[in-house]
Amino acid sequence: xxxxxxxxxxxxxxxxxxxxxxEMKILMVCLGNICRSPLAEGILRDKVQRLGLDWEIDxxxxxxxxxxxxxxxxxxxxxxxxxxxxxxxxxxxxxPQDFENFDLLxxxxxxxxxxxxxMAGTNPEWKKKVKxxxxxxxxxxxEDIPDPYFEGGFHRVFDMLDEGTDGILHAYAPEFIAx
Length: 179
Description:
Elements: E1 24-30, H1 36-51, E2 55-61, H2 73-81, H3 97-101, E3 104-107, H4 110-120, H5 124-129, E4 130-132, H6 148-151, H7 154-172
Parallel strand pairs: 1-2, 1-3, 3-4
Helix pairs in contact: 1-7
């Protein structure tokens, strides 16, 4: 059962001499920036730090409903159970400047993905940066990361994000991932 899976502690750097790519900046995006995107930020930030990569990981919401708030208590509890820190993460609203500041803007679901593409407008450089989270997943490819705020399923969301962040690392830092 997905809820019984333990957080993966198996990622080890294969090449400690070179950060690949250098100065990668990734923004995780969901609706309110209090459940999915801050958890994805925390999981990927933890893995990136353990691998010694020089990446910046952040998160934002397409709405400003929870601006300045900490992640939802239920998601903080799951993160703590899995050994992931969400310290210092506070909700913020996505801005057009994020398209300039980040290499990738990764949407948690199709609605967020469409919102990002709409914000990118006709700018082809901005559109290239927009990805859907499950593009990086093998087990959940094509699915949306469900919003657990009303529906629950926080442990399942963790498992989906854990697996997908491995996929991000495989895509952008293959030299560091044990096959």
